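ugh ok fine here u go
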Amino acid sequence: MPLSEHEQRLFDQIERSLAEDPKFASAVRASDPRFHARRRLIIAAFVIVLGLCLVVFGTVASNTLLGVSGFVVMLGAAAFAMQSRRRGQAPDLKVVGGTATRRTRQGRRGGLIDRLEDRWRQRPEGHR
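structure:
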């Protein structure tokens, strides 16, 4: 449903006032999962370059242990980068009752108990 002209002006005014507030902008940026994912990707890229340097230095110095450790560092950083990229593309925000909450990872038992508690709360009133 499109906004009326008055509502659009109010919306623009609110948007401008929020954009001018640096405290609000930093709070929104801090809660944005894409911002954190981008930062983790930059860190992972730096660690990959560091691992590559270890591999090259280990090869030049004929130190196999150093070369292998550099490769392991690169592999770990690449896995970290892939995980960060996935998190940035699909943030785990779940809307419940009009509010957004971050979904936490729970084991099978925690999920089962939560579902059972939800079913218990939603059962008809006459069956208590």
